[in-house]
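Customer escalation, tier 2.

The customer says the design service returned an amino acid string that "doesn't look like it belongs to this structure." They asked us to rerun it and document both sides in this ticket. The original structure tokens are below, unchanged.
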């Protein structure tokens, strides 16, 4: 929320709010966006959602490349995309994985529709969320709905993870833990066990931490699921399929930041790595209103600030850790419905983001 008495200061084509953190906001250092490559594979899938940068070469994964998940099929039906593409820094695109029918032993409740939830674990294991469409593109009635798919570095599904608390996994981030990796997942279809109805406006969804054990030469194992946040609003939305808690980003302070599209705010869950009880999402709001306009994707800037991608206008908003909105930058002019996930390149000088309007991976670098 804008601090009382803050002055608006124009600097180099961006707008900042006086009283911000020391040093120039990250967004203020960036130049003009450019397209890196199309995200449309041979089967025509569209609507790029998830994004993650490859840190280590293994199998088909090449260090420095970016992988992107597609949520729609070529007919633009939401919740039916089945592909993950891989894009090199030079803009060469290839298909990392096309997920066909799953065997009964690896079933995913409701089917496959690849969401923004996308991570790469040590050993080249790719974990991607599935939030499938129901009949005629409606929200699925099955409860729980969707799953997490675990692919090896060759792009083949090795495991599916399902659980009552994995219910519409919409976005995800990861962090190393003492035993392996923790995955932090936002859900948009949380419903009481046994309830087989689609979410309605005002339904509440959860944020979970999944503990994952890693053993060399073997697929990762899900060893536990802890609900760490509750009370996030989800609602059906014809244009966006469903809206709810979306972007999740883990700060160096151990706080998990969550973009809540419906309430137009970014919330925070403290002690996310260690907490054993759920934090109600209305307990702490990092920032709301102001330049935020339906925040979706979140990532952490090199300076530690939170970067939120606005769904409704194609603008990125930078928020410092005391909740002040310190900068904004237009990434997609008039970009209603175009921004989703974003990531910082390993160099720390480049912001990568998906552009749903052009079905492309875009980039903006430090000037």
């Amino acid at each position: 929320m804008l601090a009382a008495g803050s002055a608006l200061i124009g600097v180099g084509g961006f707008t900042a709010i006086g009283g911000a953190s020391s040093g120039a906001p990250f967004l203020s250092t960036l130049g003009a966006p450019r397209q890196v490559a199309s995200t449309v594979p041979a089967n025509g899938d569209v609507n790029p959602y998830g994004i993650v940068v490859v840190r280590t070469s293994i199998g088909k994964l090449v260090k420095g490349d970016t992988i992107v998940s597609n949520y729609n099929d070529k007919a633009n039906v939401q919740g039916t995309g089945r592909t993950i593409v891989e894009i090199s820094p030079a803009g060469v695109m290839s298909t990392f994985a096309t997920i066909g029918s799953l065997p009964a032993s690896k079933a995913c409740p409701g089917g496959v529709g690849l969401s923004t939830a996308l991570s790469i674990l040590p050993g080249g294991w790719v974990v991607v969320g599935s939030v499938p469409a129901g009949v005629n593109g409606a929200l699925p009635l099955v409860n729980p709905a969707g799953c997490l798919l675990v692919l090896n570095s060759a792009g083949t599904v090795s495991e599916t993870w399902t659980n009552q608390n994995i219910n519409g996994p919409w976005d995800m981030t990861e962090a190393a833990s003492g035993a392996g990796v923790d995955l932090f997942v936002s859900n948009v279809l949380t419903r009481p066990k046994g309830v087989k109805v689609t979410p309605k406006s005002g339904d509440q969804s959860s944020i979970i931490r999944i503990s994952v054990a890693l053993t060399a030469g073997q697929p990762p194992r899900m060893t536990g699921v802890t609900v760490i946040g509750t009370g996030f609003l989800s609602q059906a939305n014809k244009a966006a399929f469903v809206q709810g808690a979306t972007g999740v980003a883990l700060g160096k302070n151990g706080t998990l930041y969550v973009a809540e599209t419906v309430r137009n705010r970014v919330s925070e869950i403290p002690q996310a790595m260690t907490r054993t009880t759920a934090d109600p999402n209305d307990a702490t709001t990092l920032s709301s209103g102001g330049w935020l306009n339906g925040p979706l994707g979140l990532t952490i800037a090199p300076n530690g600030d939170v970067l939120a991608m606005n769904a409704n206008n194609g603008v990125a908003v930078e928020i410092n850790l005391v909740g002040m909105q310190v900068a904004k930058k237009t990434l997609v002019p008039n970009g209603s419905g175009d921004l989703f996930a974003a990531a910082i390149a390993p160099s720390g000088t480049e912001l990568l983001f998906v552009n749903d309007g052009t079905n492309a991976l875009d980039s903006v670098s430090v000037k």
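Tier 2 assessment: The sequence is consistent with the input. Confidence is low (pLDDT under 50) at residues 1-22. The chain has no helices and 28 strands. Sent an explanation to the customer and offered a walkthrough call.
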